[in-house]
Amino acid sequence: MENLKLVLDHAGTSFEQVVMTRIFLTDFRYYQTVNDLYASYFNNRLPCRTTVGVMGLAGNGDIEIDLIVYCGD
Predict the structure, then answer these.
(1) Cα(29)–Cα(42) distance, integer angstroms
(2) Which sequence spans correspond to the domains of the chain?
(3) Using CA atoms, how far apart are residues 69 and 6, in angstroms rounded to an integer?
(4) Measured on CA atoms in the order 52, 38, 4, 29, is the torsion positive or negative?
(5) CA distance 45 to 19
(6) How many CA atoms lie less than 13 Å away from 57 in the CB half-sphere?
(7) Cα 59-63-45 angle, rounded to 5 deg
(8) What pLDDT is attached to residue 24?
(9) Neighbours of 64 (CB within 10 A)
């Protein structure tokens, strides 16, 4: 989430402008931990989200998150 925050900051935006996220998890035992951490970045306004269980991720990661962000006109 901190890496995503850096990307958003660099683009001149923030989590406030996120309209959708996709989270890919290799192990759903971490779902609640990820959910709690994720929610802490959105100040009580959660964008729509899809969470998908996968067999593996690039670089042997456990979690991958992508964002769709509204940047205005």
Answers:
(1) 22
(2) 1-69
(3) 14
(4) negative
(5) 10
(6) 14
(7) 145
(8) 98
(9) 15
Q: Is 44 exposed, middle or buried (0-12, 13-18, 19+ CB in 10 A)?
A: exposed
Q: Say which residue the tokens 């970045």 belong to.
A: 41
pLDDT for res 49: 97
Q: Report the topology of domain 1-69.
A: 60s Ribosomal Protein L30; Chain: A; (3.30.1330)
| Phi, psi (rounded to 5 degrees) for 57 | -130, 160
DSSP state of 44: T
Tens-place pLDDT, residues 19-61: 999 999 999 999 999 999 999 999 888 999 999 999 999 999 9
Check residue 72 and give its pLDDT: 79
